[in-house]
Amino acid sequence: MKRIFALILITLASCTISYKFNGASIDYTKTKTITIADFPIRATLVYPPLGPAFNEALKDIYTRQTRLTLVNSGGDLLVEGEITGYNLSPQAVTEDAYASQTRLTVTVKVRYTNTKDPQFDLDQSFSAYRDFSSNQMLNQVQDELIKEIVEELANLIFNATVANW
């Protein structure tokens, strides 16, 4: 009985199951590098810190959640595009016809090229928004809203390009 118990214990100790839940489904035997071009701002309304914040967030998510090496050009994967929208719009209107909420929306046009498997190429726009009280000035909340919007956009783009669920 002791031998059977010891055998079971050894068998269980030597078996491991590993799951990785980072969302990326990349064949690292074929795909090793990624090029992420800086996204210029082509929106009518321009908030200069948006460009660098978005570019860094996009590079950060791919380097943190994949084993891909970021290269300046010629990557196996290429992510490029432009920031096409930075818009404010009134949302919740009160009984006296004034907006009580304002929505800040950022739109990004993305072109994704997978040189190893072109069936996964993508040309798509992504948008994210945050609402804020109309009692606040945009310059009071803009930096925090941009931080949240940029993070959401980076996640949306990452999931659409390398997370093939």
Break the fold down into its secondary structure elements and pairings.
Blueprint: H1 2-14, E1 33-36, H2 50-65, E2 69-70, E3 77-90, E4 101-114, E5 122-133, H3 138-162
Helix pairs in contact: 2-3
Describe the structure.
The protein is 33% helix and 28% strand. Strands 2-1-3-4-5 form a 5-stranded mixed β-sheet. α2 (50-65) packs parallel to α3. With 165 residues, the protein is of the alpha/beta class. The model is unreliable at 11-22 (pLDDT under 50). It is elongated and about 60 Å long. The protein has helices spanning 2-14, 50-65, 138-162, and strands at 33-36, 69-70, 77-90, 101-114, 122-133. A hairpin with a 7-residue loop joins β4 (101-114) and β5 (122-133).
Average residue-wise pLDDT? 87
Question: Which class of secondary structure composition applies to the elements?
Answer: alpha/beta
Ranges with pLDDT <50 over ≥5 residues?
11-22
SSE sequence, one letter per element:
HEHEEEEH
Short description:
It contains 3 helices and 5 strands. The chain is α/β, with parallel strands linked by helices and 165 residues long.
